[in-house]
Design a protein that fits this description.
This protein is mainly α. It is 68% helix and 3% strand. 17% of the residues are buried. A hairpin with a 5-residue loop joins strand 2 (32-33) and strand 3. The chain is built from 13 helices and 3 strands; from the N terminus they run E-H-H-E-E-H-H-H-H-H-H-H-H-H-H-H. This is HTH-type transcriptional activator mta. One of its GO terms (molecular function) is DNA-binding transcription factor activity. Residues 80-118 form a coiled coil. Residues 2-71 form the HTH merR-type domain.
């Protein structure tokens, strides 16, 4: 059986324009055509579209998806098994976040107590959504080293990261140049270099700038406390400039 582009769009629930775009970039280009030149999607094309949708659900870029599914080593069965594993992980994280939201609602009503650590339960610190920007700034080697360390991050290390962020959040209403603030930001600098790669003072300062110029960073960090991203950025800049001047 073969489907026209509109039929596929209606079946899947995506726009005709999206399918045309996939065709234009070589992501999904059905080879069969009608006598009048219309593309026809076969069963194999639909199976490939399914793979694309799975990868999109897992936040892969179209460029990365194209590279994966058109690789000579691509295995559909293996890919489905990987999708299942990652989607279960995603579901478990969403369940934890839902529990966090429900407990936070009760906390605001005064029904339960909630520690600072509990307030960020469920957030995933291993997902580097900013990898492309980081690679452009600091190169592939540094990022690969960081990814290896993140992959092997222990529960103790993850807890340490949370503790540092919570500590910084508690200081965000005082001067980022204060002795207390600088001691805490120094601990963050040492934590990054110990567990996530090698950061020079310049790279550390640049990372702090990304905390405020990239709204994704700001939103993620400010979950610990409104204004934390701005505070950390200023503290990191002062720390880097002072240390470089020594």
């Amino acid at each position: 059986m073969a489907w026209k582009v509109k039929e596929v769009a209606d079946l899947v629930g995506i726009s005709i324009r999206t399918l045309h775009y996939y065709d234009e970039i070589g992501l999904l280009s059905p080879l069969q055509q009608t006598d009048t030149g219309y593309r026809l999607y076969l069963q194999e094309d639909l199976e490939m579209l399914q793979q694309i949708l799975f990868y999109r659900e897992l936040d892969f870029s179209l460029k990365d998806i194209k590279q994966i599914i058109h690789s000579s080593s691509f295995d559909k069965q293996q890919a489905l098994e990987q999708h299942r594993t990652k989607l279960i992980q995603k579901r478990n994280q969403l369940d934890a976040l839902i529990q966090n939201v429900e407990k936070s609602m009760k906390h605001l009503k005064g029904e339960v107590e909630m520690t600072d650590t509990e307030k960020i339960d469920g957030f995933d610190f291993s997902d580097n959504r900013y990898e492309k920007e980081a690679r452009e700034r600091w190169g592939d080697e540094a990022i690969e080293q960081s990814k290896k360390k993140v992959a092997g991050m222990s529960k103790e290390t993850e807890q340490k990261v949370r503790d540092i962020y919570s500590q910084l959040a508690s200081l965000r209403h005082i001067s980022p140049q204060s002795e207390q603030s600088q001691a805490a930001i120094k601990e963050w600098f040492e934590c990054l270099n110990t567990h996530f790669g090698t950061y020079s003072k310049e790279a550390f300062k640049g990372l702090g700038q990304m905390y405020i110029v990239d709204e994704r960073f700001t939103k993620n960090i400010d979950q610990y406390g409104e204004g934390l991203a701005q505070f950390m950025s200023e503290a990191m800049a002062y720390f880097a400039d002072e240390k470089e001047g020594l």
